[in-house]
Amino acid sequence: MRGQTADKEWNGKEEEEEGETAGEDEDLPSFPRPSPARSGNSPHHTSMGKGGPLHGLQNCRGENYLTSGASAAVVDLLPPSAGGDLAAVCSWPDEMRFRYRWSSPLHYANTPGVCDFDYSRDCHNAKGEQDMCVVGAINNYTTQLMSYGDSSAYNLTESLMFLAHFVGDVHQPLHVGFADDEGGNTIVVHWYRRKTNLHHVWDVSIIETAMKDFYDNDVDTMIEAIKMNITSNDVRQWKTCREKSVTCADKYASESTSLACDYAYQDVEQDSTLGDEYFFSRLPVVEQRLAQGGVRLAAILNKLFSNSEEESKSGSQFLI
């Protein structure tokens, strides 16, 4: 799986050389497993710093959509330092990329320059190992979390933190971009006057500009404004998926690839200057993907952790 974050962190030039080790599980992608600890033994985390990747924040603020059962399970699994707040550990998988070298390709998936995602073709790491992409990661950690409440061999605290982050990643269009430009990381652009790359524009710059111009540099205010524009029909449509896989992550990846072609890459060349026209036409896409990520993560967690009555009321039976 491939992962892109701010600037040029995801392309794996250093990380992927380390490779990944795997512990096999029946019918599961072969992901490494850190210690089978629960929340008290999870690695420490730090909150998302200024200028860090912002595209996953909305997923981690989707508590309004959680059932009481799911909310209780999330609080139970979070490390004590999170204070019961999933957003507090939203950036943890990015912080762990250099410690858990095997996890770097799990942040993304690349297509061979085409505007559709195909799991069998696109979900692999630089060594060609299958299932090592963001879609495989979502499937894997969702499956691990199905063992919650039982005696699990997995570190379910880490499974939850990985899942929350990767659902955000798969909704960022350039996390399912083209292999030859590393999801926009090698496309140098100017965001107004600042030199950066196209991937960073979609990870950070569009959101930071919106926060500065419209939300007094307050991400919480921006997220609340996005939530206010989500209708019940939106929630119902975004949660609906009848694929027969473990999750609907293939669908989310396909959406991102299409949006990457139609919006992220559109009218962009090396050394392009991106300004108001690009910003105002792409901001609605970014905001919608933030909203979809939050709704869908909550639906996954509701499916995993709610009782049947709560699940029926939340509509999450259609998600997994």
Automatic annotation (TrEMBL):
EC numbers on record: 3.1.30.1
Top-rank taxon, per record: Eukaryota
Coiled coil: none
Gene Ontology biological process terms, A to Z: DNA catabolic process
Listed GO MF terms: metal ion binding; nucleic acid binding; RNA endonuclease activity; single-stranded DNA endodeoxyribonuclease activity
Uppermost EC category: hydrolase
Stored Pfam families: S1-P1_nuclease (PF02265)
Keyword terms of this UniProt record: Disulfide bond, Endonuclease, Glycoprotein, Hydrolase, Metal-binding, Nuclease, Signal
Regions of compositional bias (Basic and acidic residues) in chain numbering: 1-13
Region (Disordered): 1-56
InterPro entries: PLipase_C/P1_nuclease_dom_sf, S1/P1nuclease
Enzymatic reactions: Endonucleolytic cleavage to 5'-phosphomononucleotide and 5'-phosphooligonucleotide end-products
Stretches with biased composition (Acidic residues): 14-28
Alphabetized PANTHER family for the sequence: ASPERGILLUS NUCLEASE S1, ENDONUCLEASE 4
Family: Belongs to the nuclease type I family.
Protein name per UniProt: Aspergillus nuclease S1
Native organism: Zingiber officinale
